[in-house]
Write a structure and sequence with these properties.
It comes from Thauera sedimentorum. By secondary structure, the chain is an all-alpha fold. The chain is built from four helices and no strands.
Length: about 140
């Protein structure tokens, strides 16, 4: 009977920490782009949308190599990543628009809350859809 590999609690915690570190780098780029665009007069919704795209471009190699140590070929992982990014990008835009618009939070507060929610969504998408690799089968002993 074959058994599936289940990562230890420590391995999962280490991966979550690597995800957070890579995500922080991508988020800092997102927010820097957003702040720069707002500073020159861009609409906050456009600024966060464009900032998210910049962050996503940095995030892919960090998540592929650093967080998930994926051996999945880029030809397979990148389209999955782009699909996950589309979901995350849309979630970011919609939640930010809600919090900054009808809820009337300041742009930095709305983006901070949005970032936390989208980060949780992205982790699930990356772990389950993008960089997930079939568990190695172990021979029964």
């Amino acid at each position: 009977m074959a058994h599936t590999y289940a990562p230890s609690v420590f391995a999962r915690a280490a991966r979550a920490a690597r995800f957070a570190a890579a995500g922080i780098a991508a988020t800092l780029l997102h927010w820097a782009c957003m702040a720069a665009l707002i500073a020159v007069g861009s609409d906050a919704r456009l600024a966060t949308a464009l900032g998210a795209l910049a962050g996503a471009a940095l995030n892919y190699p960090l998540q592929h190599r650093h967080t998930f140590s994926s051996t999945r070929a880029h030809g397979s992982a990148l389209p999955r990543y782009l699909a996950a990014c589309a979901v995350g990008w849309l979630a970011n835009l919609l939640l930010f628009a809600l919090l900054h618009g009808p809820v009337a939070l300041a742009a930095p507060t709305a983006q901070a809350l949005t970032t936390v929610a989208v980060a949780a969504l992205n982790y699930l998408l990356y772990a389950r859809m993008v960089f997930h690799e079939p568990a190695p089968a172990q021979a029964a002993g």
